[in-house]
Structure formats: structure tokens, C-alpha cells
Automatic annotation (TrEMBL):
Pfam family, one: WIYLD
Name under which the protein is recorded: Putative WIYLD domain-containing protein
Organism per entry: Medicago truncatula
PANTHER family: NUCLEOLAR HISTONE METHYLTRANSFERASE-RELATED PROTEIN
Gene3D superfamilies for this protein: Histone-lysine N methyltransferase , C-terminal domain-like
Residues annotated as domain WIYLD: 11-70
InterPro entries, per database record: WIYLD_dom_sf, WIYLD_domain
Coiled coil: none
Amino acid sequence: MEPSRRPLKVKGGSRMDAALDAMTALGFDKKVVHQTVNKLLKVYGSNEGWVFIEDGDYRLLIDQLLEAQQQDQVTHSLLLLFILQATHTTYIV
């Protein structure tokens, strides 16, 4: 007799899947969306948080994703500036 297995999860049926589908359609990275949703669920509560995340066609989630992108761009720009300054120092003899 074969050991019983868990039933396979139906792909695409969860709230997370819906959020991932909606955000990847807008061009956001799946991994970043997943991480951001999990952070929001920690802040707003695991099941109760979905109401806030889904409200306004994921407006809160989109705002958080755009804010993270902007912070990444600022960090990248500052790092690039630091590298350029470090490599272009002049030595006065």
C-alpha cells in the first residue's frame, strides 16, 4: 500500500498568488513582492492585514514597493558617488 500524501495545493488560488499576479503584471519582481507582502502582514496582522493590502487595488502594496525602489536607487547613487570619489582622488606632491 502506498503511503498517503498531502493533497497538492492548487496553484494560483491564494491571496498571495493574487497579489503576486497583480504586481508582476505591473513589472515588480516576484521575490520583492512576496517579501513586501510578508512585511505588511507582520505590521497589520496575518489575516486581518489582507484587507489593507487588497484595498484600493493593492495601493498600500504598490506604495511600499515604489518606496523600496526609490530607496534602492538613492542607495545605489550614493554608493556610485562614493566609488567615483574614492577612485578619482588627486594626490598633491
